[in-house]
Amino acid sequence: MQNIPTLTVLTSRFRAKLADESGMSTIEYAMGSLAAAALAAVLYGVINASAVVDAIEGIITGALTNTP
């Protein structure tokens, strides 16, 4: 006769698997890397906007042409 696990045994095994956090650090690093890449893409888009480029050029030109 085979031993058939009871509902209590199956429930405890299922809870143990849910509580297992092995591999969590890997997904946390992956999500952090994804968030950093998304932020970099947004900042790249903002910096390359024509208004921002014009403002930076104006600041640099003003700093180089003005004499104290």
TrEMBL record:
It comes from the Bacteria. The lineage of its organism: Bacteria, Bacillati, Actinomycetota, Actinomycetes, Mycobacteriales. This is DUF4244 domain-containing protein. It comes from Corynebacterium humireducens. Keywords: Membrane, Transmembrane, Transmembrane helix. The chain crosses the membrane at residues 29-47.
